[in-house]
Every structure is written in structure tokens, then in C-alpha cells.
Write a structure and sequence with these properties.
mainly alpha
């Protein structure tokens, strides 16, 4: 019975890691302007590799990643709408 308990605890930690990878990939994909679903799929199918791929994947020009930076914490209270309003029009 000890072997089953050890396998069970390892499986639980692997499940936590898999779910955290899916959450992180979904968040990254949403911030980079691609929507959360592609990131969720990458995180579920590729686990940690999906998160690494999304970290190096370029962000869209009008995404939160480009306007607010990689992390949303140091934005000095500026929202995405305010940052977009400050940018020059795309035609110029």
C-alpha cells in the first residue's frame, strides 16, 4: 500500500504543475493579444514548454504586453485605453 500512496502524491504534484502551466500560458497569451484560448491549449498540450514558447513569442503591437509592459503592476495607474489614446494613429 505504500507504493500506491507515493505514486498518488507524485501524481497530485504533477497535476498541480500541469494546471499551473495552463494558467500561466493562458495569461501570457491573453496579455500578448492572442486571446486566452490559444494559450490554454498550449499550456495543456505542451505543459512547461508551452509557457516557454509563449514567453519568447512576439506580442501584437496593440496588446497589453506592449502598452503596459510584461507585468501589469508598474503601470502608474494607466489603463490600456489611456495608453492607446496617447499613441499616435496607426496611419502616421
Amino acid at each position: 500500500m505504500t507504493v500506491i500512496a507515493v505514486i498518488g502524491s507524485t501524481a497530485l504534484w504533477l497535476l498541480y504543475g500541469w494546471l499551473l502551466s495552463a494558467i500561466a500560458a493562458s495569461w501570457l497569451s491573453g496579455r500578448k493579444g492572442y486571446g486566452e484560448r490559444p494559450g490554454l491549449a498550449a499550456g495543456l498540450l505542451l505543459t512547461v514548454v508551452g509557457v516557454i514558447i509563449l514567453l519568447v513569442w512576439p506580442a501584437k503591437p496593440d496588446s497589453r504586453w506592449k502598452l503596459q509592459g510584461p507585468l501589469p503592476f508598474g503601470t502608474k495607474g494607466k489603463t490600456v485605453a489611456e495608453a492607446r489614446a496617447e499613441q499616435p494613429p496607426a496611419g502616421d
